[in-house]
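For the sake of transparency, this paper describes our internal protein records without simplification. The record that follows is passed on verbatim for readers who wish to inspect the format:
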Amino acid sequence: MKKAVFFDIDGTLWDNKQQIPDSTRKALLQLKKNGHYLFICSGRTRVFIPDEALMPLGFDGIVAGCGTYGEFQGKTEFYHKIELEQIKKDSEYLNKLKAAYILEGRYALYIDEGRFEDEFYNEMQKTLGDNLLRVTGNENQFEVSKFCVNYMQEHQKELEQELEKRYDIIHRDGGFMEIVPKGFNKATGIQQMCEILGIAHEDTYAFGDSTNDLDMLKYVAHSVAMGDGMQQAKDAAEYVTTPLWEDGIYNGLKHYGLI
């Protein structure tokens, strides 16, 4: 029976230097050879998922932007974006608080230079090129499905109280929050994709390592947390595999007899 396996990217498929273990490459190609569906399932929006580095590993589709976007064999199956007037209001509010934030869409990311350290901004610019736009000056053409905000020494409580009226807030390592429209997460994206493709829930698997993976780890029939992942992910998973660089993906797939 064909299974569908969903993989987080950061901390799961690759490390913080975007390096992928050879054992992971081998495991994914064998999983594909065995006739199963392979999906990326990421908090990153589509524009921030590099095709050249990941798609040749055998992936059939992508669930991106914490469940706001779904793609199968190159075709967009669903996409939810925040209404323009709403995200403009949210951006104005964040500007008022002088928050450091990134607006994330299918086609572009929006950042104002000076809100983040130069090293971070320059790295984002190098990675995204023309797909990295300024917030200021592009307000009338925002195309955004989620956003991220750095923690603030001041106004943090006020910020959360305002945003949680419309969004779910995911507290991430690294000093930032992932802000996702209510009703959307990796689990809802998986559910919608599986409904479209006719994949039974009992045939779903997921690999993750972080707090934005909790919904999918709890939702799928069989969930795997990376051995070097966050404790919350390990607590939510059915199985804890070895760390990323200790053949974590390979051993997790082997545990379930998928390879």
The radius of gyration is 18 Å. The mean pLDDT is 97. Residues 90 and 137 are 15 Å apart (CA to CA).
